[in-house]
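Shipment paperwork, digital attachment
Item: protein structure file
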Amino acid sequence: MLGPPAKITVVGSVNLDIVATGERLPRPGETVTNAVLAQHPGGKGANQALAARRLGAEVVLLAAVGRDANADAALALLRAEGVNLEHCLVDPRLPTGVALIAVAASGENQIVVAPGANRALGNTFVLPPSDAVICQLEVPIAALERAAAQCQGLLVLNLAPAADLPPALLQRADLVIVNELEAQFYGPRLQARRGMLAVTAGAGGAVLWRDGREIARAKPPAITPLDTTGAGDAFVAALTVALLEGQAAEAALQFACAAGAACALRAGAQPALPTRAQVLALLAAGR
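Attachment content:
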């Protein structure tokens, strides 16, 4: 990393992840037993904030939690690793968000989210100055629109989980990041907009477009995944950090793919998010 660290504000969700890891995922209506239960801090906003912090950025998280014990657990790693939480709101009425996650031995997962206080993130906040603002779709659209209106740097919109949103918000984003399923949900609207678009495909890698033209393609280092829960969030943070640092498109995309792969090597979302050194080591090992 050359020069001063990137300054990133993340506007997004905070959850406490309740994770059950078993041999396989259940089919509809089926019960799978003999799982192992664990608890980790999570939420796409919190994950991306911590991921960017571990990759060397200065990070502010703008989010909402409840006034409960789950909030302390959900914010513990962020607080310990120096993410600025001064803009994290406490709602006295709603509980901290919770995600129920089932993980198979293959690393694949299923997630159900009860958003709780994440729904309380409104449209009256003031963004701190930053080089980039990262948003996802686990908070109200009004909050995203306010963030977009105030953003003075790179606006990154991770369209996860896929949901309808105003066309103006989609057009305003400088960088949109989706996985293959999310790309299918939005269809031609993604390629029709101006700006950058990154589409991820897990072990199949990722493609980066600018103004509808492909500018880079990369694959992650070959790994045996343990848990893919936070891999997409690591990718979002890493691509944002790399672009802010001025890395060329192909190098930035390769860095982001390696960050996602490094995350999938460990269990949990936030506990598995890699440091910069871990990403660079995995890149070097894959060459």
